[in-house]
Amino acid sequence: MATVAATDATFDAEVRNSDIPVMVDFWAEWCGPCKQIGPALEELSAEYEGKVKIVKVNVDENPNSAAAVGVRSIPALFMFKDGEVVSNKVGAAPKSAFDGWIKETI
Q: pTM for this structure?
């Protein structure tokens, strides 16, 4: 499964109301580190299909979702379980670091 794009309008349905844990990547088109981690997140989305959903939110197009969780810089990644933030990370990292983060959080 590919990552899912969420908007301010669909954020609650895609993230807060999900039956499985959700990793949210807050990003922007102009952000180099955001683009750098994109392929790793796509791979992880396929590897964790049915166990963890990976959602991407473009902060330029959807500022309300980012503001609601307190995003101050990007890339910002938040892990949600049962509709609540349980962990977050800021900045680019290798795929292995995100994989480890998912495993320790879920």
A: 0.97
